[in-house]
Design a protein that fits this description.
With about 400 residues, the protein is an alpha+beta fold. About 30% of the residues lie in helices and about 15% in strands. The longest helix is centred in the middle third of the chain and has 32 residues. It is globular.
């Protein structure tokens, strides 16, 4: 029985009903959970400013510290899935595949917005907005259903309630990351625990009170009501300023008092592009609820950014410069995207990935042969001394 079969979906809904019945019968007014849905606020308490030490080791497991890792891929793009699988295996993590959706396969009556009386009719328009939107919601939906079925079949009801913050990471099939991705995630996990207010040893290395972790984006802005930052200084995986490419607003690190080799983790209130992000179980539920009740259908990244901005109970944590970006391989540029139009005669002589210093994709041959890892920009300034971190 596959995850997408009618029998699985029926079982999932039966399981969900059983879970709701048990939960409502067993919950008492005095019980509480590890999460708080109240808007996060800054604090100067020393006990709240420091997350527990030594709790980032799990980011080095086969799922990078998440319960599952997914890659979003259109079934006909075997080439992209092949390339992703090689890069993931060289980094040492496993993944499940979420099939992409073509906009023409989404019926208009299933769209949430009353303003979509005249949705896009062109194939490109429907794929760009509707197909991409639905594919990301299928990730959230599948994660909710998988988690419920796994939990109810393998562990006790009490443990379901206690461990309802389980997490999943999704990456697009053309995403790329630094060869030191695990080290970066260890730093990010410390920052995420700090921003999420974790003060005791968490069940997740990323903390237990967040909804979305935005690892790969092309724009992210800090929440004005929460100015805390986890700062990683003297980081040789931070791209030079002149090599950074973003499509919208990002933190102005120099104006914040940081130098050009600094990366920060922060509470985000907006963002663009979904090269990679993680959802908690609670976050997946919130995304499904929000996206099916929006008043205007927008590209999914814009819509999730709006959710981070306009729902104070939806807790988003981002990193800048980003840890994941979109790889552009050598060859025909028309192969880059399945939602855009490109001249088939345009040939890219050399592949690249914006914002990633030691690209895994560009170092595949070196990783396979134990060769020397190459920087994407050999002329970038060479740093000396260890990487430094602090809580601002």
């Amino acid at each position: 029985m596959t995850i997408d079969s009618p029998r699985f979906l029926l079982l999932a809904f039966v399981v969900f009903g059983s879970f709701v019945f048990f939960f409502t019968r067993s919950q008492t007014p005095t019980q509480s959970f590890a999460h708080s849905d109240s808007p996060h606020t800054s604090t100067t308490s020393s006990t709240q400013r420091r997350p527990p030490l030594g709790s980032s080791a799990d980011v080095r497991n086969a799922t990078l510290g998440f319960e599952s890792v997914f890659v979003l891929n259109l079934p006909e793009r075997h080439d992209k899935l092949d390339a992703f699988s090689v890069a993931a295996s060289l980094t040492g993590f496993t993944h499940h595949v979420i099939q992409g959706i073509k906009g023409q396969d989404v019926v208009n009556k299933s769209l949430p917005s009353l303003e979509m009386a005249n949705p896009p009719k062109s194939e490109q328009g429907r794929n760009n907005i509707i197909g991409c939107w639905r594919a990301h919601l299928n990730f959230a939906q599948r994660w909710v259903l998988m988690r419920l079925v796994q939990a109810l079949s393998l562990i006790s009801m009490d443990r379901i309630v206690r461990e309802r913050i389980s997490t999943a990471l999704i990456l697009e099939d053309d995403s790329d990351w630094d060869v030191s991705f695990r080290d970066q995630l260890a730093d990010f996990a410390t920052g995420s625990r700090y921003i999420s207010g974790t003060t005791t040893k968490p069940r997740s290395p990323y903390g237990d009170d967040w909804d979305l972790l935005w690892l790969g984006h092309c724009s992210a802005q800090q929440d004005a009501s929460d100015q805390r930052r986890y700062v990683i200084e003297n980081d040789d995986t931070v791209p030079p300023v002149e090599r950074r490419k973003n499509f919208s607003l990002v933190p102005k690190l120099n104006e914040l008092g940081y130098d050009n080799s600094t990366r920060i983790v922060f509470r985000a209130n907006d963002g663009v592009c979904l090269y990679s992000y993680a959802l908690s179980f609670r976050g997946a539920q919130k995304v499904l609820r929000w996206q099916n009740n929006i008043d205007k259908l927008r590209p999914i990244d814009i819509s999730i950014g709006n959710q981070c901005k306009n729902d104070p109970k939806f807790k988003c944590i981002a990193v800048f410069p980003q840890l994941v970006d979109s790889h552009k391989p050598a060859g025909r540029q028309s192969r880059d995207s399945d939602i855009g139009t490109f001249d088939p005669n345009n040939i890219r002589a050399k592949g690249y990935t914006s914002n990633i210093v030691r690209s895994t994709r560009l170092n595949v041959e070196n990783l396979l042969s134990d060769g020397k890892i190459e920087d994407q920009w050999p002329d970038m300034p060479q740093l000396t001394g260890p990487r430094r971190t602090r809580f601002d």
